[in-house]
Design a protein that fits this description.
The protein is α+β, with helices and mostly antiparallel strands. It contains 8 helices and 4 strands, in the order H-H-H-H-E-H-H-E-E-H-E-H. It has a 4-stranded antiparallel β-sheet with strand order 2-3-1-4, sandwiched between helices. A hairpin with a 4-residue loop joins strand 2 and strand 3. The longest helix is centred in the middle third of the chain and has 36 residues. The radius of gyration is 30 Å and the shape is elongated.
Amino acid sequence: MILLRKVVVFLFTIIFLVYVLCIKPSGTEKLKNKKYLFFPMILGLGLITIGTFIDMLSVFNNSKINDIIPICFTLGGIIFVVFTIYWTKFTANSITLLYKDAYYDAMTGLYNRRGIEEIFEKNIDLNEGFYVMIFDLDGTKMINDNLGHLIGDEYIVRSAKAISDSIRNKGVIGRIGGDEFLALLTHANEEEMEEIKCCIKRKVTKIFSKHDISVSIGVSVNKQDGESMKELFQVADRRMYDDKRATNKYKRVN
């Protein structure tokens, strides 16, 4: 019975070791400089496997080689635990990076469309009122054509910061397109919302004051203008284009 138990333990460890050796080549291709993380695991499992093998043979052999068993188990276990600590940290960092890639915009650091839509749905489920603001930067094409796309990217990044600084803790903001942004004001009243609009328009206009740039803004109100993301987005989008036409008309008159 003792022999059977030791054989089972040995078979389990050897199968696990072979499995790790088989997945290592394919598993490390995407880890780049993190490949070394697998070496402690393989070394630790190797020592534990050797220990279980000697332990299995100890039923037939009472020589001094049996003194190696506790050394293999102890050293192998320590090495494997060290690997587990490092691997847990690496996995946690990888999950954080994956989350950022999935929900945040790389250029501006704001939420991307997926991230802002998820927050949108959560706020609708809370059944509370909030404002939806859509922003469209005017003059992006002109800047790209005349100053280059690097300056155009700078315009988008600086505008994103201007919008974010104006909203602050009144809500959240995401980049939903090339030069389009969407914000949810969950902690603002109508007066504060109007102040935020004016502040954003003023700050964006000053980014490249020598050029004819501005931002068009449309606003919708949850429950008042709709109760779904599609409805609220459509109303805010329509009002944003109304704002754009009004701005263009003002520029032509002046």
